[in-house]
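To: structure subgroup
Subject: Chain for Friday's discussion

All,

I'm putting the inputs and outputs inline so they're searchable in the archive.
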Amino acid sequence: MYKVLLVDDESLFTDYLAHLLVWEEWGCTLCGTASDGETAWEMILRHRPDVLFLDINIPPPDGLELCRRLREKKIPCEVIIVSAHSDFAFTKKAIRYDVVDYLLKPFDREELIQALTSYLGRVADGRARLLRRCLQGQDTLPVPCVMAVMHTGEQPGTAFLTRVCGEFEKQTGSCWGVLDGRD
């Protein structure tokens, strides 16, 4: 399950967003909500969400500052901006931080589904690239794959990596810590 964190200073909006979808049907689980940047940052560090639905205009630090921190700290969390700001300057700044999507409030269920689908596609593409790089010896294997290779002696082909990561993810909610000898 992908962990989702909702951040907006309007609690009515986060409640609406939390109930707009049955998140589990999309392979997601809500790990929380936050109404300000400081609480959001603490939750990001504690829960390590996979995707963040983030308003730009929240009490400090604002949404764009949170995006900057995520990228600076190399925290693997995708961001979908949810904002009432249609000013291109905000959009341009968000693009610099490689956000998945920018939803302009108010938006409907279909727009949310489209943004979530975009995120899920991005995750699938990233995993496929990682598997290819691992098989070509250009990257490190995810920790559970290394542990499974050591335990079973099985060779880490694509089917093996996909199966092991899928099983590990079901148990832990994540598969993408890596073991590469660096701290």
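Points worth raising on Friday:
Residues 2-122 form a domain with the Rossmann fold fold (CATH 3.40.50.2300).
The CA atoms of residues 110 and 116 lie 10 Å apart.

D.
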